Predict the 3D structure of the following.
Amino acid sequence: MFPIRDHNPSERTPFVTYGLIAANILVYLLMLPAFGDDQLLYQVYGDFALVPGWVTNGGSPHTLVTSVFLHGGFWHLAGNMLFLWVFGDNMEDAFGHIRFLAFYLAAGVGAGLVHVLAAPASMIPTVGASGAIAGVLGGYLLLYPRAKIDVLIIFIVFFKVFPIPAWIALGAWFALQLFNGAGADPDTGGVAYWAHVGGFFFGFLFTLPYWMRQGGTGYWRQTHGQPPHAEAKYELTRSNIPRVRRRR
């Protein structure tokens, strides 16, 4: 299940969201030579990836930030940037550019700390923006629980786009992280589910003051949990390609 867009248009250009996407892509392109050189890759990860065992012992605190801009492969990067593209603009619209950047980085650091707590002795490098992006999802869920999200459902050979409320799409995503995190051993590597859970929690928490200033539950009653502006509507347009009928 992949979100491909929401019906919640931003009212100003999300320069920070675009900048974060560009920065992640740039870092990935700079890392391409390292993917073919194990020694260089170990050096890059040793300097910039999050290694819980080192952080637990008081070393490499900067990796709580630098690891957020590293990715382990193209699809890792593409998936994270898709989520940031869909949901980041609205959070930036609500917070403003500078506050959104601080929010994003703080959620990433919080996600990293939760991962360290889940596997304090692990020496496996952890990379990826998903913890910070999980924070964006947590904040989005609080502000716009009933915003429509178009998700692409893929099941074997069946695929279709469905518009569903954000509370279902993001709630299901969060429940899946909790379920997988409960059954996974964080010391063996793989997906850092607890970093996702932590990022989502901190994003929700960091958004609470803004939500309260808007009126809390009164804000929900006023907007009915939907965007505070007209939602975007998407319709299929007629093709300009002429239709050719088959002769019998």
Q: What stands out?
A: The chain is about 60% helix and 10% strand.
